[in-house]
Amino acid sequence: MTGSGTVPGVVYGRAGGSLAGAGWAQKDAARIGASGERLTAEVLDPLAKRPGGVTVLHDLDIPIPGFKANIDHVVVAGSTVTIIDSKVWRPGVYRTRDGVTKRGFRVAEFADKKTLQAACDGFRRHLVRHELADVTVRAVLVAWSTHPVWPVLFAGYEPAGAVAAAGWRFRLSPARWVGSGTADSRIVTALLPLVRK
What we know:
- By secondary structure, the protein is an alpha/beta fold.
- It has one domain.
- Strands 2-3-4-5-9-11 form a 6-stranded mixed sheet, sandwiched between helices. Strands 8-7-6-10 form a 4-stranded mixed sheet, with no helix packed on it.
- Strand 2, helix 1 and strand 3 form a beta-alpha-beta unit.
- The protein starts with 5 loop residues before the first strand and ends in a 6-residue tail after the last helix.
């Protein structure tokens, strides 16, 4: 991309904001979901504070008319946009075979949703409308464990349209998953209106 400025590392929005007082979810589910979003934010926000840091946006609308789901986090590193969905799952080994994901021997339908795939498509179209066709858009599903000791493990887990990172692994090397470098200001400007108030 030519003629782009950069935005020094900044954090916009509030992690877990959409789950605060969520009437659509049971209180426990909303509380647990918000805790996963905050854990991811605790890893991402310090990346923005580093010299030449990334820009982090929390709690964004998916730019698809009528689409009600949100995206938990977006990281802009240079001209790369990484969409992140935070989850809190029961510990165990998750693997996908023939398009079906199981935790152990039980089918885990929740792990096969296509929200991230749709979100990537929506964000790509949104950026093209802002004349940013050459931006790389990718997605990461980060899953934290409900148990303080037993982890979530991925052995061939294939979320639709994304790569998967167990929370403990994501915490060890976040830049591996989201990249590094100061954000292109045009991308940040295009994404800021999507941040939920």
